[in-house]
């Protein structure tokens, strides 16, 4: 069995866009943590720009699907975190600066 690397998980997450903003969830600052166990189980701590995000379920479903493509069904755990609350300073400079934050 090939060991899944955190960098592979990050690439899969970077290919997931927030449909409202059009920025990937990594550069948007929505990923609070990635862990891959020795058994290739993936654990991701994720947040949303707001607890009222209308597309939260869509984003979470896409993340789940992308990561299950790496680790297999049943080997992905998403933990929705609200602390600290997301803010524009969490975005990568590549997107934050041009948006005026």
List the helices and strands and how they pair.
Blueprint: H1 6-14, E1 31-36, E2 42-46, H2 56-71, E3 76-80, H3 93-96
Parallel strand pairs: 2-3
Antiparallel strand pairs: 1-2
Helix pairs in contact: 1-2
Q: Please report the first level of CATH classification, the CATH class.
A: Alpha Beta
Kindly estimate the percentage of residues that lie in beta strands according to DSSP. Answer: 15-25%
| The CATH homologous superfamily | Fe-S cluster assembly (FSCA)
Architecture (CATH level 2) name? 2-Layer Sandwich
Report the principal-axis shape. globular
Distance between the termini: 44 Å
The SS-based structural class is alpha+beta
Roughly how many Å is the radius of gyration? 14 Å
Uncertain parts: none
- SSE series: HEEHEH
Q: Please give the number of β-strands.
A: 3
Count of separate DSSP helical elements = 3
Mean of the pLDDT scores? 93
Give the neighbour order of strands across the main sheet: 1-2-3
């Amino acid at each position: 069995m090939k060991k899944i690397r955190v960098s592979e998980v990050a690439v899969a997450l970077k290919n997931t866009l927030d449909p409202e903003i059009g920025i990937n969830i990594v550069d948007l600052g929505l990923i609070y943590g990635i862990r891959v166990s020795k058994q290739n189980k993936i654990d991701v701590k994720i947040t949303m720009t707001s607890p009222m995000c209308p597309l939260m379920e869509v984003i979470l479903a896409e993340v789940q699907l992308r990561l299950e493509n790496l680790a297999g069904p049943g080997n992905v755990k998403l933990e929705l975190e609200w602390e600290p609350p997301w803010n524009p300073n969490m975005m990568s400079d590549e997107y934050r600066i041009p948006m005026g934050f």
